[in-house]
Each structure stands twice: as structure tokens, then as C-alpha cells.
Amino acid sequence: MAERSQTAPEAGNLGRVDQVSEFEYDLFIRPDTCNPRFRVWFNFTVENVKESQRVIFNIVNFSKTKSLYRDGMAPMVKSTSRPKWQRLPPKNVYYYRCPDHRKNYVMSFAFCFDREEDIYQFAYCYPYTYTRFQHYLDSLQKRNMDYFFREQLGQSVQQRQLDLLTITSPENLREGAEQKVVFITGRVHPGETPSSFVCQGIIDFLISQHPVARVLREHLVFKIAPMLNPDGVYLGNYRCSLMGFDLNRHWLDPSPWAHPTLHGVKQLIVQMYNDPKTSLEFYIDIHAHSTMMNGFMYGNIFEDEERFQRQAIFPKLLCQNAEDFSYSSTSFNRDAVKAGTGRRFLGGLLDHTSYCYTLEVSFYSYIIGGTTAAVPYTEEAYMKLGRNVARTFLDYYRLNPMVEKVAIPMPRLRKEKPPPYKCPLLRGSASNYPNGKGDKKSSVNHRDPSNSF
Ligand SMILES: [Zn+2]
């Protein structure tokens, strides 16, 4: 019998579990803290399993209807003996309107447990926890790089760190030096874990010895607040902070007690804007998207046609550098519903030489131009998008001639293929299931999504 782990993982999210038959469970996502509207992120462990035990999990209370599950997305899995996250095969995943659950959209997946001693973990997307992030920053700090600085810009409601990184050559931080600043933020929406991988890709590239990174550090000051909502990340929320606020709708008037991390970042940006020695040139807020493929951007609409045109340059250049970035999915808008976002607020505040974007990346996959096959994102692919974002500043500022013509060999990536999980087909005859006689068959078949399509 599969049992839920007594010890939830960090950023774990699982509410109620109903066993509906010997081999089938209904799982309820726990809504965001203080905000029942958002139910997307899940992350839970299963232990005390039996070898060859086949189970169907139904996640029955998603708050969204449109989903990349329709396009082949599948939950992630890892286990004690196979600690690298893998996506389940999409053929074992179904997404459909279920009459048993008030016609809510249900995602069902079949799984065959194969090692009794393993603890299995399932998640919506690759987790990236607050603890992992803190360890990562600690490891960077220990390297004592003279162009990397970490400070605590503030604290969350639950006293977690709001980290601010500054990456630039020390000469740019001399008293009175003029600064061209690129400001980057991430994880304002805590369930959007790809944001952290992209952000880490940017950081890793900028602190590297790559000649492009060296030129970028000489010319620009990168200010990065990679985790704007540390409480939400820790708690396993999808969209909100501890107190149930979507922080990316509160840029107009953040409160120091209700939205302290947002308040801290906004204060710093306004202070930089008012400093005549500082030119805040870019603001990029990194998110993940639950219904779109690829990486893409949202920008603003300006009355000034020339400014509007210039705003398209960065995403066009990024599109040339990153095969997973789509310029055609990039759009510019001034929807009322987005008025409290960082991109919109800062687009209105900062002067005409500044550009503010939301960088979105799919929770699932990208399609390379000229092909139709969706390539699922890996952690490494998200980080690569981050490296390409960083690299694009070289093109934007036309710094290419500055790059020394030294060929630095890129490290080869170790490609290892972990042993696959055995997964039974969810669709099909009752013989796929243990004891799959007629009585069980009927309970499976009325959930069979083939009836719903
Ligand atoms: Zn978001």
C-alpha cells in the first residue's frame, strides 16, 4: 500500500488524499496560504511502497483549466536511488474533465513503484527550494570573488532573507563612479521554479571567466534579487506570499509590513532612479508560464513610437542567441489586469532610456524554429536560457569588439541516463492492473479520458 510520507519535502504541497480503490488515489492540492484561489503547484513524497505496485494518482482540484498537460507535459519524479528528476512518459498522463469532480479538470497519471526501499517524490516541475538557493549563494560567497557581492536587502514576513547580489568589476563601485545598471528579479511567483534555474544561469555566466562575462562586468552593474518571495517558495505556494498576496500586483503601493520584500526592492530601485550617477537601463522580472511554450517576453506600450521600437531590440537579439526563445510569442501590452506588475509599474516610472520586461519561460517545453516537435525543458536548458539572456547584453551594447579573441573551451556536460521507471499505461485493458477484473475495470474506465476527448 502506498502511503504518503510523514515528512513533507520543503516546498511540499499536498492537501487531502482519498483512496478511491485499491490502486487509485484522488489527490487534492493545498491552496496557497491565505488564498484559496490558486491551486497548481504540487510536490509530495510516497514511501512504504510495494515492488511492482501500480497506482493511479488523480490530481483533482487544479484552479486552472488551460494547461500544458494538453500538450504533453507530465509530472516530474525522482526517488532515493535515482535522485535526478525525470519527466514521466506523457503516454501515462491524462488531462480531462471529470464528471466525478464537478467537471473540474483532472490530471491522472499511472505509476509503477519498483523499489520498496525508495522514497518517491512527485512534483509539478523541477523544484528549486529556498534552502537550495541559500546553499548556492553560500557557495558563491565562499569563493571570495572581487566582482560578486551579496547583501541582505530585507526580510520576509517569516524572517527569511531577501538577498541582493551585485555583480560588476570593483572599479564600477568606486565612490562617484557612473553606473549602468541591469536589474533582475525572480520568483515573485513562488511556484514558478524555472525562474530560479534561468536566474542561476544568468548568475553563473556573469561570475564566470568567460571573456564575454568579463566584458559585461566591466561595462555594466548587475543587480539581482533572485527570490522576491522566499516565504511563498518555502511554503510550496504557487502564486502568493504567506499572507495570500500576489506580490506582482502590488508594485504601485507595497506595504512594509504586508509586502516587505517587494517594498525593499522597490525602495532600492526608486533610490537608484533618483541617483544622477546611476542609469537604470534594464529591469527584467523572470517568471514561468503554465500554458505557453518557449521563452518569450512581455513589454510595455509607449506613446513614443521610437521608444516602443527600441524596446523590441533586446528580445529580437535574444531570439538570435537562444533557440528556445520566441520573438513571435513576445508581446507588448497595457492590460489593466497587469497594472501592478513590476514591468508595468517600472515602465511608467523610469525614463525613456530604460526598458522593463517580464521574461517568461514555459513550465514544459520549447519548439525550435522550423520544427514542430516540443523539446521538454531540462534544468540545464533553463540555465542555458539564462546564460543567453546575459550574453545578449553584449550584443545590445555592441561590446563584441571588446571581447578578447581567446578561445576558452566550454566545459563538456556529463550526459548520464538514469535507469527508467516502469510505467503502466493508464489507458488499456484491465490486464494492465493487478487484480484487474471487471469490477475494477469499470471504476477505471469511467475516468478514462478517452471518453472525454
Ligand atoms: Zn509569474
From TrEMBL:
InterPro entries: Cytosolic_carboxypeptidase, Pepdidase_M14_N, Peptidase_M14. Residues 437-453 have a biased composition (Basic and acidic residues). Belongs to the peptidase M14 family. Its cofactor is Zn(2+). The active site is at 360 (proton donor/acceptor). The keyword Protease applies. Keywords: Carboxypeptidase, Hydrolase, Metalloprotease, Protease. SMART domains: Zn_pept. Its main location: cytoplasm. It comes from the Eukaryota. It is found in: Cytoplasm, Cytosol. It catalyses: (L-glutamyl)(n+1)-gamma-L-glutamyl-L-glutamyl-[protein] + H2O = (L-glutamyl)(n)-gamma-L-glutamyl-L-glutamyl-[protein] + L-glutamate. One of its GO terms (molecular function) is carboxypeptidase activity. This is Cytosolic carboxypeptidase 6 isoform X3. It comes from Equus przewalskii (Przewalski's horse). Residues 417-453 are annotated as: Disordered. Residues 126-397 form the Peptidase M14 domain. The keyword Hydrolase applies. It holds the Pfam family Pepdidase_M14_N.
